[in-house]
Amino acid sequence: MTAADRGDAAEAVETEADEAAATEAVDAEPEAAAPPKRDLAQLWVCGFLAVLGVLVIVDASRLGGFSASNDPIGPKPIPIILGVLLFAVAAFYALNVLRGGHGEDGGSGANEKFDLKTVGLLCAVFIANALLIDWLGWVISGSLLFWGAAIVLGSRRYFLTLAAAVVLGLATFYGFAIGLGLGLPAGVLQGIL
């Protein structure tokens, strides 16, 4: 076999490879260009949100017209706003579903099994908060709740997470006391806070 024959053979192999790649690309284009399949089962969620929104609006409209000196508008507006927002979310979600939108698969952990250990530890943190809130008070038990939940969910910056939890516990305590006029339990910190 001469060099010219080898060159012709190599050229023929390259031509065949290029033709095969072009055929594969043409075959792959219709699959990629296919429109996404509509998942109409999600419309049940839209319907549930719409019914829930209507029920909240109807229930809020039946509230009495009472008000206090520190609350002149009464309790009606907030549930009515929430009901309208629920209804709006249902409408936008239904529109998205009808246009072919669909939920995400959950990322890299979409096919992993249910993590019962994490759920159990989160439940333990919430139960501990419920048991300790009267004795320790919200600032301490709430801080432990926030810190414990963050650790269970994967935070490994223990001291930074604890500092953020204490700030969050104090902020919610004073937010309820000053902003809403509601006192959360002070517990062992009674008289200090």
Account of the protein in words:
The mean pLDDT is 79. Helices cover 68% and strands 0% of the residues. It has helices at 3-33, 43-61, 77-98, 116-136, 138-152, 158-180. With 193 residues, it is mostly helical. It starts with a helix and ends in a 13-residue tail after the last helix. Among the domains are: 40-65 and 73-102; 116-184, no CATH class.
Q: Top keywords for this entry?
A:
transmembrane, 193 residues, membrane, mainly alpha, DUF1468, flat
Helix fraction by DSSP (H/I, runs of at least 4): 55-70%
**SSE string, helix = H, strand = E?**
HHHHHH
The helix tally amounts to 6
Low-confidence stretches: none
- Shape, per Cα inertia axes: flat
Strand tally is: 0
The radius of gyration computed from the alpha-carbon positions, rounded to a whole number of angstroms, is 30 Å
Strand proportion: under 5%
- Which structural category do the helix and sheet elements fall into? mainly alpha
Oligomeric state of shown chains = single chain
Largest sheet report: none
Instruction: Please state the average pLDDT score.
Output: 79
End-to-end distance, in Å?
96 Å
Region (Disordered): 1-31
InterPro entries: DUF1468
Domain DUF1468: 44-185
Transmembrane segments: 40-58, 78-98, 119-138, 158-184
